[in-house]
Amino acid sequence: MHKVSMPQSIIERVVARRGREHVFDNIDPGKTALVVIDMQNAFMLPGVAHSLCPMAEKIVPNINRLAAALRATGGAVVWIKTTFTADALRDWSTYFDMVTPEQGKRRIAALTADSKGHELWSGLDVKASDLIVEKNRFSAFIQGSSNLAQVLRSRGLDTVLITGTVTNVCCESTARDAMMLNFRTIMISDGNAAVTDEDHNASLCAFYLTFGDVMSTDAVIACLEQNARKLTAAE
What we know:
Elements: H1 8-18, E1 32-37, H2 41-44, H3 60-73, E2 76-82, H4 88-91, H5 93-97, H6 101-111, E3 131-135, H7 148-154, E4 159-165, H8 167-180, E5 184-193, H9 197-210, E6 213-215, H10 217-234
Parallel strand pairs: 1-2, 1-4, 2-3, 4-5, 5-6
């Protein structure tokens, strides 16, 4: 698991701007979605992965705990899968210009639908009632990447918990765009995985300063359960 480090100076700047350390600790479970980014063999399975993140396997238990908590308190679980299509060679040619031809071929092979790499990691607790959304860019929310925003809004969901891999690319990109689209957004500090602790912490700090909240798995589950009890008592 990553050694999470949030400098006190960052926390103080957030508190000065927002008035408290965790501005979204009052989340409504029934309006909340756990969004799990790219926990696929293409990023996790040695020999298949085109871009291996060894830390991703370590966050699986926390993702499964969060998924169970969301289901139990009335929220939703959404598994996001990156999918390669031939259109990307034209519409996202910039990406392929920035990697070697060999790396581009490995990405295509790993993320093509129905391939081993495209499959979700076997240790994830995926239920039939969960949602699966495919994306074709780093961010699941950027225009043309997926229909995630519509899927969430059609279900009355306005809050997203971002987990998955890698923290500083697809997860942060999705989280930033979620906030830009007016979703209350929380990145889970021990539910995201990057290649290094430095990458992970820098991403969380940058997001926390301006775009949303950063909370641990335990803290979020406690909020979900507490708020679910309050809503039940008020009925």
